[in-house]
Write a structure and sequence with these properties.
The protein is mainly α. The longest helix has 26 residues, at 16-41. Helix 2 packs antiparallel against helix 3 and helix 2 (16-41) runs antiparallel to helix 4. The chain contains four helices and no strands. The chain has helices at residues 2-7, 16-41, 52-62, 69-84.
């Protein structure tokens, strides 16, 4: 997707569903992975002595960046409707 974005700027509008899917998938998997690590580390994982505290903050911030999961779902839905018309 990133390669297509760089090589074919004229087709960027068509990449919106793919970019939305990539952002939502990567962000949600990162949140889950860091959450599992924090659970394994216990309370120490929230101290600044370990990088997990920063990772947690960073991946959670990704949830605030557009598109949100709800916005991405709308993009996916519109794309599905357009393909079936």
């Amino acid at each position: 997707t990133a390669e297509q974005w760089m090589r074919r700027p004229e087709c960027r509008a068509e990449l919106t569903p793919w970019l939305s899917a990539a952002k939502v998938t990567v962000t949600n998997h990162a949140v889950t992975a860091v959450d599992h690590c924090l659970r394994a580390a216990g309370g120490a994982g929230l101290t600044r002595a370990l990088p997990l505290e920063r990772y947690y903050r960073d991946v959670r911030a990704g949830l605030s960046h557009p598109p949100s999961d709800d916005e991405a779902a709308l993009v996916f839905g519109r794309r599905a409707v357009m393909r079936n018309e």
